[in-house]
Design brief:
Length: about 60
Amino acid sequence: MSDDQNPGSWVNRLLGWSLLLLLAAMALEGTVAILRAIWAPLTILLGVVSGAGLASWLVARGRRF
C-alpha cells in the first residue's frame, strides 16, 4: 500500500504539522515577551545613538566649510 492511502501516514503528517505550528507559536510568543521587556531601554538607546550621530554629523559638516 502506498503512503498516500495509508491512514497512519495522514495522521503522522497532521501530528507533525500541528507540533510544528505549536512550536512556532511558542517561539513567536517568547520573542514578543522579550521585545516587550526591552522595548523602553531599546528606544532610549536608539534615541541617544541617533542624537549623537546627528550631532557629530552636524559638527563635521560645519567644520568642512
